[in-house]
Design goal:
The protein has 5 helices and 8 strands, in the order βββαββαβαβαβα. It is α/β, with parallel strands linked by helices. It has one domain: P-loop containing nucleotide triphosphate hydrolases (Rossmann fold). It is globular, with a radius of gyration of 17 Å. The chain starts with 5 loop residues before the first strand and ends with a helix. The structure holds guanosine-5'-diphosphate (GDP) and magnesium ion.
Length: about 210
């Protein structure tokens, strides 16, 4: 999280802050096991916010179409908070889920202000979902970073039930937390279902945290 006057985008171009607007930069990470739909979420967001994005975003993939390094994109939002205008620049990155790239996953999480955990509804992804979630909890516990849990691929046949999924990850049985956010966001990233809602609910939490509202 930075509150600076000069920001560099991912092409190395400098952006100067307007004197009247506060510029705040956040980093949002899409986390989860390989093939759970992180890049698909990222692509849907990129389409949805094509008016606000600052850079084209980039994806680096292996020859099998898997994310090799990370997908990255900057979005800019204007917020009015306590009658002051803020320009919030959000960097969105997804990590690679591949085991052999554990160090790049840690690098991607570095400096994260909020995390969206993308789980896979396939029943045979139980262990991967669990392991990846545990990694995330280990990371966020110390830093108290807000996160949202998205259960993706709700369109597939024989998907895990939300109840079983919550049990697997040790999440509360309730539908929502006291602040009104959902314990689990069911989604179909393939057609964009719930992708933006997830993202917006996380951004609101990140902004609230920042201003300690
Ligand atoms: N059926 C279904 N497939 C999905 C959904 N979201 C992603 N996929 C597919 O799952 C595969 C892996 O998705 P990708 O976004 O690359 O996963 P990543 O490794 O987490 O970045 C691709 O073939 C996607 O088309 C979904 O909501 N439903
Ligand atoms: Mg990917």
């Amino acid at each position: 999280m930075k509150n600076t006057e000069v920001l560099l985008n991912d092409h190395g171009e400098a952006m100067l802050s307007n004197h009247n607007d506060g510029i705040i930069q956040f980093k949002i990470v899409y986390w989860g096991p390989g093939e759970s739909g992180k890049t698909t979420n990222f692509l849907r967001l990129k389409e949805k916010f094509h008016f606000t994005k600052l850079t084209e975003g980039y994806s680096i993939e292996t020859s099998e179409g898997r994310t090799l390094w990370q997908d990255s994109l900057f979005l800019s939002f204007k917020f009015n908070i306590n009658e002051k205008k803020y320009n919030i620049i959000t960097q969105i990155v997804t990590c690679t889920g591949q085991e052999r790239f554990l160090s790049t996953r840690e690098y991607v999480l570095d400096g994260a202000d909020g995390i969206i955990f993308i789980a896979d509804s396939h029943k045979d992804m139980r262990e991967q979902n669990k392991r990846s979630f545990r990694e995330l909890i280990n990371f966020t516990q110390h830093k108290e970073i807000p996160y949202i849990v998205q259960l993706n691929k709700r369109d597939i046949e024989d998907a895990v039930t939300i109840e079983d999924f919550k049990k697997l990850l040790g999440l509360p049985k309730d539908e929502t937390y006291p602040d009104g956010t959902y314990v689990v966001y069911p989604a179909v990233a393939l057609n964009g279902e719930n992708v933006v809602d997830c993202f917006q609910d996380l951004i609101v939490q990140v902004v609230f945290d920042y201003f300690s509202l």
